[in-house]
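Aim 2, interim progress: modelling of the coenzyme A-bound target.
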Amino acid sequence: MLPVELSSGVLRLDAPQGADADRVVEYCQDPVMPSYLARLPWPYRVTDATDFLTGYVPAAWADDQEYTWALRGPASAASSASVSPLLGVISLTVPVGGDRASSIGFWLGPQHRGRGLMVEAQRLVLDWGFTTGLCESVRWEAVAGNLASARAARKAGFRYTGLGPAGIAYRDGTHPPSWKGELHAADDRTPAQGWPAEVVGA
Ligand SMILES: CC(C)(COP(=O)(O)OP(=O)(O)OC[C@H]1O[C@@H](n2cnc3c(N)ncnc32)[C@H](O)[C@@H]1OP(=O)(O)O)[C@@H](O)C(=O)NCCC(=O)NCCS
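Predicted structure of the complex, ligand included:
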């Protein structure tokens, strides 16, 4: 399908563009990124961002394999003439058959974290995935210890399903111990019991 735009009062999610490459490169210099994002090339270069933005992302939308959005500030008359700066990225993979669930992945530029934006972005994407009927359930996973990701997933309504090897191989070929969660279309999305104590916090 063609990219779909989603929005709320605080965020707009739309198609990543080639013009976003500089910001993607800047954000992906954050040293936590290669530890937490299994498929991120490292070191991360301009060609990696360009390939991602103008190659992988539009092809995966067109093939209905993975839907990737740019997070941007809300639309305004002042910003409508030009592309509002990219803040981060969120994506949803959709299984093509069998009983595999969809999966969600996300990241923000370091200066855009800590404002709850990824909880809101997940809400928009999950609502879209469930209401369109493209998803019946969605899985989340993060390297054990990635508290920011786990807290954002818990706040978005994911239920903790346990610790296990990462479902996808990391750059070094390993499957590091990972926290896993799942959300079903009918779940009420209030933060669930059962998460590791350090995720729930004080
Ligand atoms: C994961 C990520 C998108 C979350 O975005 P965010 O803006 O930090 O999310 P929030 O502001 O909603 O914060 C989520 C929670 O994590 C906490 N948190 C943020 N950074 C943290 C850190 N380094 N250590 C511990 N807790 C942290 C916040 O306090 C918040 O908890 P609270 O709501 O109980 O106060 C962002 O941290 C990020 O891009 N990280 C690097 C890439 C990554 O790990 N992606 C996920 C891969 S699975």
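The CA atoms of residues 136 and 185 lie 6 Å apart. The first helix runs from residue 21 to 27.
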